[in-house]
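The step that takes the researchers longest sounds almost clerical: writing a folded protein down as plain text. Below is the pair of lines this work produces for a single protein:

——
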Amino acid sequence: MKTIAIFVPALLLAACSNPAPAPEATDRPGANAAALAEAKTATGEGTITAIDPDTGKITLAHGPVAELSWPAMTMGFGAKQGQLGGLKVGDKVRFTFRWDGKTAEIESIDKI
């Protein structure tokens, strides 16, 4: 009986101390990071605070972006050539953009 009383706790302790197996590595470097950084499309409304047509950058003070659970903020966006024509600082705009986890790129932007 003493043997069982010593053996069972030792067995339980050994079972609890074995770590779970590590996740298997993938052949593709950055594959997990790429899955986390899938680009998402979102919409917003805001006011233009700066435009740099030479670099294709626009800064918007925008309201909350529900699709990304973002609060209101001021941030810069990249834009394609021709998207910023006719826009000026102070214009109120509605815009659609793609977010890849690091950068935001305007897909469409219109005055409201």
About this structure: The chain has two helices and five strands. The first helix runs from residue 2 to 17. The radius of gyration is 26 Å. Confidence is low (pLDDT under 50) at residues 18-28.
